Amino acid sequence: MKTTAIILAAGKGKRMRSDVPKQYLEVSGKPLLFYSIKAFEDSCVDEIMIVMDDVKYGKEQIVNRFGFKKVVNIIVGGKERYHSVYCGLNAAKGSDYVLIHDGARPFITKQQIEVLLAETYQAGACVSGMPVKDTIKIADKRNQVKETPNRDDVWMVQTPQVFSYSLIKNAYDRFMEDDRKEVTDDAMVLEKYGSHSVKLVKTSYRNIKITTPEDILIAEAFIQSELYH
User: Fold this and answer.
1) pLDDT per residue over 64-73, tens digit each?
2) Which of 57, 116, 118, 184 has the fewest CB atoms within 10 Å, measured from its CB?
3) What burial class does residue 206 get, using C-beta atoms within 10 Å of its C-beta: 0-12 exposed, 13-18 middle, 19+ buried?
4) CA angle, 67 then 111 then 198, to 5°
């Protein structure tokens, strides 16, 4: 079975308030994007495709600089995240399973990737995540509390999100034909356009997405701590 990781690294990351796209920012001496690619490089995944705006940077400052062997393609991203995912899926034709991952989540590990893949071989579709720690409130348009869901039933969804290629590609084909693009992650595309259940698989609370300047400080602390091993 052929497995392909699609790592999303396009976009500007406006909430980072930096002239440099967040995926290129150096964290402990390496570009942020390095860390997620390294986890997939070390895992059992067969090949890696990176979706990013600057192909030259990707080749010279990521692939060549760090000697990544599994990166087989660097693809220009689209206007929205879902455009970039679709470009990656089209390029991954011939794969049996795909792992879609945000390059701004540097703390996914080799072991977590392999657990997710093993679960997906059985379930067909799995997403990484963790149960929420805080109480969640559902609000109305006036910011009034509508309801409080049972905390045991609520998860924070992360990436990678891992799918049988045919399942997610067929769902994305249908999604791209729909004028309404009302989805927030890849699992939701399958839920709405593929009629297939999605299994939640625990990864780690440290599998955070780097979004704001404060997150860079957290990332530095994780990398330098003994916990990041």
Assistant:
1) 999 999 999 9
2) 184
3) middle
4) 115
Report pTM: 0.93
Q: Report H helices in the chain.
A: 32-42, 55-57, 65-66, 81-91, 110-123, 165-177, 186-193, 213-224
Handedness of CA 120, 123, 127, 129 (dihedral sign): negative
Closest Cα to residue 36, out of 65, 60, 75, 7? Answer: 7
CA dist 174 and 73 (Å) reads 25
**What φ, ψ does residue 101 adopt, rounded to 5°?**
-135, 140
pLDDT digits (tens, 9 = 90+) for 71-123: 999 999 889 999 999 999 999 999 999 999 999 999 999 999 999 999 999 99
Buried b (16+ CB within 10 A) or exposed e, 112-127: bbebbbebbeebbbbb
Confidence band for 227, pLDDT divided at 50, 70 and 90:
very low
Measured distance CA(38)–CA(119) in Å, rounded: 21
Burial of 46 (C-beta count, 10 Å sphere; 0-12/13-18/19+): middle
Q: Cα(195)–Cα(198) distance, rounded to whole angstroms?
A: 10
Segment holding 74, helix H or strand E? strand 71-75
Query: pLDDT digit string (tens) for 133-148?
Result: 999 999 999 999 999 9
- Do 84 and 78 touch, CB atoms closer than 8 A? yes
